[in-house]
Amino acid sequence: MTVVTQPDVSVIIGAYEAMPYLVECLASVEAQTIDPARLEVIAVDDGSTDGSGEYLEEFAARAPMQVTVIRQENSGGPSGPRNVGLGKAAGRYVFFLDADDRLGPEALERMVAMGDKNGTDVVLGKVEGVNRTAPKSMWGKTLDRTDVFSSNIKFTLSAQKLFRRALLAKHGMRFDESLFTGEDALFTLEAYLRADGVSVVADYPCYYLVGRDDGKHVTKTGSYTLRFDSARALMKLIADMVPAGPKRDLLMIRPFLITLLPQFGPKFLTDSEEVRRHKFELAKPLMDAHWTPGVARGLKVHERLRLHLVALQRADLLLDVVKFVKAKKQAAAILERRGTRVYLVYPHFRSKTARIPDDIYLAEAREARVFPGYREAAANSFFRRALRKARRMLSGRNFKAAAA
Description:
By secondary structure, the protein is of the alpha/beta class. The protein is built from 15 helices and eleven strands. The chain is globular, with a radius of gyration of 26 Å.
């Protein structure tokens, strides 16, 4: 076996009550095509009582790569074990692998090669869901080098990425152990923002996100207050790291759409009056600080309308909109200004009592295109007409000059 002084990648696995999924997880690590000498595994048993810790130790005794097993009292969340593993990691890169998921055989070899080829600090490998959904919008094509502003990577903020360890060490990056959901989003977005480039491996399934039969996957648990904690932390990170303007608005779409808006979806209809009031109280400082016209324009009409009503603290109007959305009705469209404007008729449109601005109901081009009669290009017709007129005048002058 080749002697390697520093592993290429440290795979960090936090395990809590992970059997029997841990068996396939570790088998996928053992099946990696990368030379085992270039790989180390740091597994942290977070107080399991189902034999996960014992199985990790059995794996360490027979695995072809270096495996370190750490057993500790339960920490209450995934951040603690990940931080412990990160503190022990020696690899040039680290990869966080959840104990109930698994890797594609060539995953680590391909991702390390991608990071080395392009000098990028974060590498995303294509994720596929097994008995659960996985993010899709960022896997359209393999990208040697991109960033969080010019791609859809902001919609995959889970921790299952390849991170250059020097980047994490330089900025003292760790997972926030005070958060019990969304802690990976905070860590990953910070890495995206600090990285010297991000690569995307979209042509090979690197990671299999496994839905547990017992429904105990961590992202499905937790009360609504934890979601607000996550949104608050992510919005603060964005505001602290990105100056106000279009780039900040672009990133803010993610916490508003993915973390905050679901609190005002169908579940809101069955919430008690007390919970509804509490949700509005928790949302108010976030809306006051971070809800801007730029963020609003990045959303679909029903998303924008609901958050606008949250900003106004109008639960009475919001309930009508949520009922409409839950019923999956198609809002009627009104085309105005020769088809250049499409308004979607969700509840309270042009209501004299609700007094919601028309612009809230105005569909952006990507949503308006499906409606017959919409004229997307016509919005720029003034500039096109001016350009054509200038060209005609110029060609006329050239003709006269030639005739003379």
